[in-house]
Amino acid sequence: MPSYELEYPNEPYSTVKRYNTRATYALETIHGIINSCPILHVSFHAPNSPFPVILPMIGKMGSFERPSADDLGDVLDLYLHGYVSSRIMNLTRDSDSDSSSGLPMSIAATHLDGLVLALTPNSHSYNYRSAVLFGHATLVTDPAEKVFAMELITNGVIADRWGHTRTPPNSSEMQSTSILRVSIKTGSAKIRTGMPHDDRSDMVDTELLQRVWTGVVPVYQTLGTPIPGPYNKLQNPPEYIHEYIADTNTDTKENAEKAAATEVEPPKKVRE
């Protein structure tokens, strides 16, 4: 881990302007939001589309060139997994031949941590953690780096899953799968925690205070009991799956409850 906290540079397109006290540019925070989000939304421009394209994809932050860079606070690339002939892969392939920088794209991730219920509808909000990355994608062509990224992404689904499956991928799987490496130019995150904030005039209205419940309903993902597949031969799920489920359920619940209890300086304007 770096001896000091690294931050992404502020660019006009990445700087948080509304409620900027909630913003952070710290790599560790941003990478943590990205890596803990099961679905990323990737946006890019397609030449023949009148609208920007946005796709749900699976991805993880990592560094093949610097294996020692295993801390979220390090400079990392984003690896995205997809089918070899998908539009995003073909566009990236074309971009590789036209430009040395790659296909420009934006990547977003969001966690919902709580429903913030206030005295008036306009003061309702969410507790949330959101992050956006901006970078250029190129296709991974080195077989070793490709396997590295596939392992990274697979273990992002369930920790240690790669080592408990048939690996390495066979030639057909390698040929049908493409991996994008997104070199990150910059990024930002925005986080809201705490309780509701209402107008001063409403907070001295005794009748309103006695009539309307205010507070936070924590929101968190819960992993359920594993259901065996039709050709499963194991009587019980392996211990590493049970451990991952238990750890994840504990962490997500604690994070949501902590978000409700952690008060940050409220914005000057209470309407959100």
Automatic annotation (TrEMBL):
<dbReference type="InterPro" id="IPR024747">
    <property type="entry name" value="Pyridox_Oxase-rel"/>
</dbReference>
<protein>
    <recommendedName>
        <fullName>Flavin-nucleotide-binding protein</fullName>
    </recommendedName>
</protein>
<feature type="region of interest" description="Disordered">
    <location>
        <begin position="249"/>
        <end position="272"/>
    </location>
</feature>
<dbReference type="Pfam" id="PF12900">
    <property type="entry name" value="Pyridox_ox_2"/>
</dbReference>
<dbReference type="InterPro" id="IPR012349">
    <property type="entry name" value="Split_barrel_FMN-bd"/>
</dbReference>
